[in-house]
Amino acid sequence: NRNALSKQLVRELATSLDDAEAADARAIVLRHEGPAFCAGADLKERAATDGPLDSSPMVEVMRRLMDTERPTIAAVEGAVRAGGIGLMAACDLVVVHESVTFALTEVRIGVAAAIVSVPILRRVPAGKIAAAMLTGESFDATEARSMGLVTHVSDDVPATVATLTGGIVQGAPRAVRETKRLLRRVPDLDRDAAFAEMR
What we know:
By secondary structure, the protein is of the alpha/beta class. The chain has helices spanning 7-22, 43-47, 56-67, 83-89, 114-123, 126-135, 141-147, 157-170, 173-185, 191-198, and strands spanning 28-30, 36-38, 72-76, 79-81, 93-97, 101-103, 139-140, 152-154. Helix content is 51%, strand content 14%. The termini are far apart.
């Protein structure tokens, strides 16, 4: 089902994050099997669910990708839609194949991209992604990089990811952890408060 975000997939992703942290991994690579990185929410599962959907497992997975001390890398070689973009955006680094396309299709099915907007809008200025969010139209890897949604566009995603992970493991673990923390923290601080805290 093109890696749609079913309850099972999200639960298994959370378990994989547990395993990576228990193994004291130096980096976490989020990759996919099959032709699509992620098709977004599992709409068939949602249609079969009575009452409001519990989005807390998806929120928790995105938080964990953002907050783990380990650098996280999304390795994307296939199409990304809707919630899959939020999952990808929760990672520190995003490596995509040059042929990948993206679309925030939520508005086309009558919902807002609410939860996934949190990691997306921490990476991308609202004005740069407004058209994609308001229309649901697809965009390519070059545009995704120019708006800041992805960090690397490559014709060989595994090789680019290997280079990045190789660089990460050459760094001192504490220095890498602190660098990840300051990359998230400093932009939210007033200049003088940032200097004081970083000193």
